[in-house]
Amino acid sequence: MSTLPERAFGNLFVGIDHEAKEERFDRLVERRGVVIERIVSTGQVSPEGFWYDDPRDEWVLLLSGGAALQFEEDGPARRQLLPGDFVHIPARCRHRVAWTDDTVPTVWLTVYFPADAGTA
Q: Which residues form the Cupin type-2 domain (predicted)?
């Protein structure tokens, strides 16, 4: 995991290994409980029986590739994501990555923020 300096310019599509064996997580910004990450998947999925159960809210934008998310409360149903699709996942909403494209990198922009942040 890498972290950018205070003032940074970049491109979310630079430095992507199209044949990576593991997902890549790059922390872009972290301020006052808010974390913004780039995640790059190249066919990886959540392990069988594993569920993310984060105490923070999570907002995810799919920038490229394709993916499918599964939410525990929906049973085996999957939510397909294409470039431009986003989802807000409330804190403690158990979910998993059921599929990511293995022909092109799936690039996610993910924003984590405290569940009690409220609205503006």
A: 52-112
Q: Please say whether the beta carbons of 65 and 109 come within 8 A.
A: no
Mean pLDDT computed over every residue of the chain? 93
Q: Are 73 and 95 in contact (CB under 8 A)?
A: no
Is 37 in contact with 72 (CB distance < 8 Å)? no
Number of domains in the chain: 1
Place of tokens 């599509």: 13
- Is 6 within a domain? no
pLDDT per residue over 88-103, tens digit each?
999 999 999 999 999 9
β-strands 106-114, 34-41: how paired?
antiparallel
Q: Model pTM? A: 0.87
